[in-house]
Amino acid sequence: MINRRDLLVASAAGLFTSGLVKAQTVMAQSTDTHDHSHHDHANHTPEVPAKTTAAAAHTPIEKAAAVDGYRPVVTPNGRTLGYRMNEGVKEFHLIAEEVEHEFGPGNRIKAWGYNGSTPGPTIEAVEGDRVRIYVTNKLPEHTTVHWHGILLPWGMDGISGLTQPPIKPGETWVYEFTLEQNGTYMYHPHADEMVQMAMGMMGMFIIHPKTPTEPPVDRDYAVLLHNWAVHPGTYRPDPSVMTEFDLWTMNSKVFPFIDSLVAQTGERVRIRMGNLSMWNHPMHLHGVQFDVTGSDGGRWPQNQWRKEVTEIVGVGQTRDIEFIAVPGDWAFHCHMSHHTMNAMGHGIPNTLGANQKQAEAEIRKLVPGYMAMGEHGMAEHQEHVDMGHMPGPANTLPMMMGEGPYGKLEMGGMFTLVKVRDHLHGDPGWYSPPEGTQAKPVQHLPEGLPT
User: Fold this and answer.
1) Domains by residue range for the chain, with CATH
2) H-type helices in 78-164, by residue range?
3) Which of 83, 174, 371, 446 has the smallest C-beta neighbourhood within 10 Å, fewest atoms?
4) pLDDT in tens, 270-282
């Protein structure tokens, strides 16, 4: 018996079979009237351009040098896609393919992504640029690329079955359009979208303004929010899950393996956030009142900025926040508390306050070494894991991780640090607070304190 999904796929395939161009490289449909006759790009796929920003183990300490009138973004744990110029057009090459990905040591998966990574490399260009983006499909099924939020001709929108036939395995297609706006945008498939996005196919697309806006930023970061269903003992994401996710990531990493965002005291910092997960994320930054300065529509006029400490980034939305950096190691995280825990933090029965000693003794008769936990809180679980008393299931990370200067941070998932120093020289390490500016224990309460 054919199911509903198979029927839809079969119907769509049949509808467009007669219209497919039988060529290894074909043009995406376009309503654009720009003359391409003097180019050979419809019959030739270029070499992948050299990477302009290599993937790094840590966020760069030195701020990116300005090029072409803008300061390039930094993608923590990621990189920016290279391009080449061809008769005034910026040419890029995206390769949709299976990738091996590591959320953190001990938690690896087979995912789908672009150019060897998930998320795919960040695309950067300037308002007014004409871009030509080749897409090669090395996946086992067809795909497309949708340029989320970008104004372009209908035939370049990347919707399988609506604006184009799908890109079959082994084919290369090309999208070409002029960038008419600026702001923070994203790209992702619009073919078998539920599966392909759940497998990790997405990336950021940053368009810088042609005329720089004021005030300028000193550091510019791009962070893509996502969720994953990678069940214990498995090595591929489960695309059928809609609500019960195991991992919450920034640029497909979990804390403490997310690069810190570094800055120097007094610098203006922008964090561009995109959300292609299945949940909204109230993103909270400690230590400052930031300005919300932009959304999918680009940077707002300054009189429309608003002060916040937490900003919800909705599903399918982008948000830009800006702030003046003040010294410290400031937490930056989603304020949905279960989004700052890893897989083992979900679906555990609530035994808080329960006396489990008798049950533990009975179970030990059947399972020697069994330990009941959770009586005093979730941190108790992590203590047993750390001591080696309770190893986790295969291919999982502990629910709470990270060592700070004063002990365990007990965080995971969508959590990282904004590290700000007066002077940056290499790895900033842990912040050392000035005398008299840190909480401390007391031996005796002052008399007469109201309660």
Assistant:
1) 21-214 (2.60.40.420)
2) none
3) 446
4) 999 999 999 999 9
pTM: 0.82
The verdict on whether omega for the bond into residue 189 sits within 30 degrees of 0, i.e. cis, is no
CA-based radius of gyration for the chain: 25
pLDDT band at 369 (very low <50, low <70, confident <90, very high): low
Instruction: Tell me the C-alpha distance between 199 and 186, whole Å.
Output: 16
Calculate mean pLDDT across residues 320-340. 95
Instruction: Report yes or no: 83 and 90 within 8 Å, Cβ to Cβ.
Output: yes
pLDDT computed for residue 316 by the predictor: 96
- How far, in Å, CA of 55 to CA of 80, rounded? 8
Q: Where are the beta strands (DSSP E) in 213-280?
A: 219-228, 247-250, 261-264, 268-275
Within a 10 A sphere around the Cβ of 288, how many other Cβ atoms? 19
- Quick check: helix, strand or coil at residue 333? strand
Tokens of 118: 């998930």
Q: What are phi and psi of 88, to 5 degrees?
A: 85, 0
Residue 296 CA to its chain's centroid (Å): 16
* Residue pLDDT, tens place only, 298-327: 999 999 999 999 999 999 999 999 999 999
Structure tokens, 311 = 């900003």
Burial 168-182 (b: 16+ CB within 10 A, else e): eeebbbbbbbebebb
End-to-end alpha carbon distance in the chain: 69
Concatenating the DSSP letter of every residue in 11-24 gives: HHHHHHHTT---SS
Owner of token pair 């001990």: 106
Contact assessment for residue 115 and residue 155, using Cβ atoms and an 8 Å cutoff: no
* Model pLDDT for residues 242-259, shown as the tens digit of each residue: 767 788 899 999 999 999
Reading the block at residue 439, the tokens are 């909480």
**What tokens were used for 206?**
């940053």
- DSSP single-letter state for residue 215: S
User: Which amino acid type is present at position 128?
Assistant: G
Separation in Å, CA 204 to CA 16, 23, 283, 322, 431: 30, 29, 18, 18, 31
Q: Give the number of other CB atoms < 10 A from CB of residue 40.
A: 8
